Amino acid sequence: MTPTDPDYDSDPKAHPGLHLIAAVEAIKGLLALSAASGLELLGPAPLQRWIEELIKRFHLDPEHGSLAWLAQAISPHSVHLAAGVVLAYGLLHLIEAWGLWKAKAWASWLGCIGAALYLPFDLYALYRHPGWLAIAVLIINVIVVWVLGRDLFKRRR
């Protein structure tokens, strides 16, 4: 997709905001790939032991509750499925990072839509757990949507 605005600078170096967002997306992608690898390398047994240790440490009911359900739900199939989902998530972020670094319009669309999808959850988190962390996450996601939306708007002007 080529920008329709003749004044739009298509040089990726002219977009430092996109580069910053691309770097963050690349870090998120690499962390997700590491997590997917870790899930595959660990397998279900250590994860179950870790969750059971959390249940004991916090004196939770080993038969009821979300951690007990999670411990029972962990199987080789579920670990492979989780690793696959996390791998896809990581690859998507790495592709988005590459596109943003190269100032591609499709990457701005992908990032803008992706960050905007988090906003209702950020607002809910702020409502349920007000504090500086929830405010900071909301502000960061609003800034990301604004920077990417501004880039898309400049392409269309």
Can you offer a commentary on this structure?
- The chain is 79% helix and 0% strand.
- It has 157 residues and is mainly α.
- Helix 1 runs antiparallel to helix 4, helix 2 runs antiparallel to helix 3 and helix 5 runs antiparallel to helix 6.
- The two termini are 14 Å apart.
* Computed structural class: mainly alpha
Topology pattern, helix = H, strand = E = HHHHHH
N-end to C-end Cα span: 14 Å
The counted number of beta strands is 0
Radius of gyration: 20 Å
> Major beta sheet, specifics?
none
Overall pLDDT confidence: 88
Provide the fold topology.
Elements: H1 16-42, H2 44-57, H3 66-73, H4 76-101, H5 105-128, H6 132-156
Helix pairs in contact: 1-4, 2-3, 4-5, 5-6
Concise overview:
This protein has helices at 16-42, 44-57, 66-73, 76-101, 105-128, 132-156.
Can you give keywords for this protein?
single chain; 157 residues; mainly alpha
